[in-house]
Amino acid sequence: METDLILSFCIGIGLSAACGFRVFVPLLIMSLAAHSGYLTLAPGFQWIGSPVALAAFSVATILEITGYYIPWLDHLLDALATPAAVVAGTIITASIVTDMSPFLRWTLALIAGGGTASVVQGTTVFLRGISTATTAGLANPVFATMELGGSLATSLLALIAPPLVLLVIALLLFFVGRKLLRSRAIRTVARSANIGRN
Fold this sequence. Notes:
This protein has 198 residues and is mainly alpha-helical. The chain contains 7 helices and no strands.
């Protein structure tokens, strides 16, 4: 029982992290897995695996993927995707974690699922901003493809190897965080040098 709870929690966090890259890709993959019987959802969330939900997530995924390749629309989608990723991550984790009181399930879902989606989404928004500033947006389609790949890979890994996806997410956040801290330190040193010259 505890093993099932831990595995379902790992799946939920993995799919929630994938929402940070693309909101609807993990929902579509989750819907496909539930519809095929591969994934068991908590009571009250079986609608996610319904044909109607599957069709809706398919259309939303296509629109979202396409939107990130349109230069002016990708920034608007980033602004909308941050709260949407938190909501999607919370719902995903709550729908997968079973055998828990509703209060505890939703609390953990918001903190772990929504929080993970928020951190990953915040990282991608920051990196997209750097891409836009340094390449005048020319590299954004490449960045959009990398985000899509990250969402697909994280979603599939969450279903196939749930504990491994947590390790991958932790390593990714560690390396990105280290790079951000390093670039901040370089800017601080450069600023100090400029002040010293003046």
